[in-house]
């Protein structure tokens, strides 16, 4: 899908990016758009899509950019950012994520501003927010 105008694409590093890619696809419903393998079973660069959104990820490394990022594993599971992803069928998405082993940190609930949402950690501790509330909607 061609994007016009400004687009935000979060970038994430994983210690085991190959495993993370499979897990993100199975647990959250991402689709592989591009996966570029590196040496020693690493991932140099990957693009995963979710509807018309995308994330980019790779294996933690010591490149100029890689030195700026670390995984939550190294910081006692602390995160400084967490994406919010709009899901139409939030209850089914929640069930699938739990089934695949997502660690729920804020259980699914109705929000006072509308919609339902939940917050979880992936297999390496990154925090993800999923909800049915669409701030662009009416």
Please outline what is shown here.
By secondary structure, the protein is an alpha/beta fold. It is built from two helices and eight strands, in the order βαββββαβββ. The longest helix has 12 residues, at about 15-30.
How would you portray this structure in words?
This protein is an alpha/beta fold. It contains two helices and eight strands; from the N terminus they run βαββββαβββ. The strands form two sheets. A four-stranded mixed beta sheet has the order 1-4-3-2. A four-stranded mixed beta sheet has the order 5-8-7-6, with helices on one face. A hairpin with a 5-residue loop joins strand 7 (116-121) and strand 8. The chain is globular. The model has no long low-confidence stretch (mean pLDDT 92).
Span of the ends, CA to CA: 24 Å
Overall mean pLDDT score? Answer: 92
Range of helix content: 10-25%
Strand arrangement, major sheet = 1-4-3-2
H-E order: EHEEEEHEEE
Oligomer state equals single chain
Shape: globular
Radius of gyration: 15 Å
Number of strands: 8
- Give me the number of helical elements: 2
């Amino acid at each position: 899908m061609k994007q016009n105008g400004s687009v935000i694409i979060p970038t994430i590093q994983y210690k085991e990016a190959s495993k993370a890619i499979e897990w993100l696809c199975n647990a959250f419903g991402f689709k592989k758009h591009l996966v570029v393998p590196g040496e020693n079973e690493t991932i140099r660069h990957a693009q995963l899509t979710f509807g018309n959104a995308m994330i980019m990820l790779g294996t933690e490394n010591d490149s100029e950019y890689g030195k700026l990022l670390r995984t939550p594993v190294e910081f006692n599971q602390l995160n400084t950012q967490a994406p919010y992803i709009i899901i139409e069928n939030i209850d089914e998405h929640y069930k699938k994520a739990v089934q695949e082993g997502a660690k729920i940190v804020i259980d699914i609930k109705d929000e006072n501003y509308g919609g339902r949402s939940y917050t979880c950690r992936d297999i390496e501790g990154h925090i993800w927010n999923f909800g049915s509330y669409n701030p662009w909607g009416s």
